[in-house]
Amino acid sequence: MSESFSLSPIQLDILKEVGNIGSGNATTSLSALLNRKIQMKVPKVNIVSFDEMMDMVGGPETEIASIFVKIKGDISGSMFFVLPPHEASLLIREMTGNEDFHFQNPPYSNLAVSAYMELGNILCGSYLSAMSDLTSLNIQPSVPSAAFDMVGAILSVGLVELSEVADQAIFIDTLLSDEENLYNRMKGHFFLLPDPHSFDRIFKALGVPR
After folding, report:
1. What is the pLDDT of residue 138?
2. DSSP secondary structure letters along the chain
3. 92-124: pLDDT as tens digits
């Protein structure tokens, strides 16, 4: 039977702060990767149901480019990072130098897929690393996997196992921008899908009542 959970404003603020710390780490890596200054902010963190999660990115039939990682260690769960295809494609073109690449024009080269996986590794890894540093918990992300498909097809993969124990996710908004305004405030989304017991461990480690 799945379990719902709620977080107080203080707890949501803490998760947002984790995101801001993680985004600071991520922008350092992205700036080096793209050879120019990148900025990344986390303006909003909310709890959403699985149905709301799909609506947040345009509905189950909207196409997205996604990164998925499993979380192991002292806490467990999974995490998605998703971008609209045209924005993900822009990043891949910059990373690979392939000006013709677009996620809507398969098949994809191994280089393009590897580049997007590296992007996900930086972004998801930075958030989880910040959480690990603040809590002193062992938090280990798996090797990321990349997918381009409709929202419903992609997200349902991560929800099947988790839906046995939970029916909600942490929604983490992100805004990417750069000094040359090539991104025009690129908007991505993290979805953190924890085992509900993992949040007890996180907030206990932070000394915040659950």
Report:
1. 94
2. --B-----HHHHHHHHHHHHHHHHHHHHHHHHHHTS-EEEE---EEEEEHHHHHHHTT-TTSEEEEEEEEEEESS-EEEEEEE-HHHHHHHHHHHH--TT--TTSPSPPHHHHHHHHHHHHHHHHHHHHHHHHHHT--EEE---EEEEEEHHHHHHHHHHHHTTTBSEEEEEEEEEEETT-SSSSEEEEEEEEE-HHHHHHHHHHHT---
3. 888 888 888 888 788 888 898 898 898 888 888
